[in-house]
Amino acid sequence: MRKIILLLPIIILIASCNKDDDYEPLLYDNHELAFNTPPGFPEVNSSFYTNKPTKYGVILGEKLFSDKRLSADNTISCASCHNRPSAFADNNIQAVGIEGRIGLRNTTPIQNLAFMRFYNWDGSKLNLESQPLVPIITHEEMASSILEVMGKISGDNDYVNLFKKTFGDETITPERIYRSIAQYEYTLVSANSKYDRVKRNEATFTENEMQGYHVFQQKCIACHSTELFTDQTFRNIGFPINPNSNEAGRARVTGDMNDYMSFRVPSLRNAEYTAPYGSFGQFSTLREVLDYFDNGVLEADNLDPILKNNGNRIPLTEQEKEDIISFLKTLSDKQFTGQ
Amino acid sequence: MKNLKKYVMLAAISLAFVSCSKDDDTNPVANEVRLEFKNTFGDTEIVLGGATSSTATKNTSEAGQVHHFSELKYVISNIRLIKEDGTEVPYNINDLDKGATIVNHAKPTTLNYVLSNIPTGEYKQIQFGLGVRTDLNTLDQVRFPNFYASAGANDTETMWEWGTGYRFTKIEGFYDTDNKEMSIHTGSTIEDDENGNHIQGVDAYRNIILDLPQNAAVGVNAPKIIIKADFDKLLSGTANTITLSTGTGMNDNATPNIHTAVQMTKFVDNLGGNGTSDLKGMFSIIKVEN
Prior knowledge:
With 339 residues, chain A is mostly helical.
């Protein structure tokens, strides 16, 4: 008996040797892509350093991102909701998954995510690599599973080649899928709007835009700060409440009552293209958002102190609203959105 | 490649021979331990039913709210048996496919869970987890395809997609005389950074420790341990006396805005103990049958 057991590793070794003989290693130039942090942007998420975008990783990620086979009935891909002309968001009130299933919240744009510390409206994820599984398995989104996805793409030669080029061998694993999608998303940087060009002295604001920028600095920038136009905090700003009983804002993640119905301050970049607005698309236009702030928001125990200290509103004249919207449109990046 | 398959077959056959020689032993070195879960309100076994069911078991909470369940599921994992000398015998604690189960009150077969190949000996205590430990709570379908499948099945729905974890308890039912809906789901939302430091979220996993009223003697016999899960504790627990309320306010807790983890934690502490002074929660041992 012992002899047989001793023989086993040897047999296995021989078997592996045979296998190696069939293997013709090919070297691909899967180099890291240049990645520049635009001036004034925050530090990248620490996960970026462990999953830097590479030439083939990004190609693979983009292919997965737009592959409808990620959904149970092969009808929607990531890109179905996160489409480029809308800054990788869409214009539905709430996200729409397979069979027209309606999700809990408004689709968030995918832009400048490399520089974010929290993902999703409630900050439930802290790195991009752990996010792709969520839409794949969620009933209201793709309603599939990672094994189902791996099964569907495993026979596809394009994928076989890309996995080999990206990771050195053709093995498809969940982690490789998640990491390549994240690599692609890291490359989606929007920093070439008129605002950016003004900052670089390559353009000038119109009178209205300039007025709007001034009002913005007085009345908006407390939350929409930094060159991302969000300070990445979570706040309850008294917007109309999503009656869906699954909604509690960030509190469902943290268990902290102070986070009840608090959401991540959204970036305002490309806001022109991402209507409707609010965590479940409460407002169809930017003007409606500003009118709401002007008229007064809902009271709440944990209403943001800035609103509490100002009578639960942000008073704005009609002219100021128009000017702010003019300014916000300077954050539109036509190169990024292909508009 | 064909050759490799042959060798693997050979290896499997040789291993089978090794196991066979083991079976020749006359004294069993191991046997089964059978767990049976009895889900109750107090001493009454629960009967599920819809909103207006006349057969469903009604319970009245300390706060005076009558309630009954239409659905009742919870996850048991990380099972350990403690021998009389204190030795811990873990049961596939790192393998959800082999060591975890979803108790679904509507499916009688799930009320029994058989631990196989438990070493012969006298056991004085059982420990298990209500829910799934954070390190295994990742919806890893590749590692644990069977558990993943049973959790995700349409009639089970014990997956918490947005948190990429499992639901640890899923209770649906009705409360008050007007049969308002109650929907209580628990699960962990914990997220650590790359160094393992806690960043956010709550841990809804609870370790349960139950002394056996008499030793479970594993050997010639396969003992059965009958465990009571008293869901009266849900609203009237050691940790919290809970009054259900329906609405979208931050203190409303009857429907899953109970996903507000603050409200959820109160139910978790009642069902699974608070992790410090109460390590039993709703669980107790009815008896051991040797």
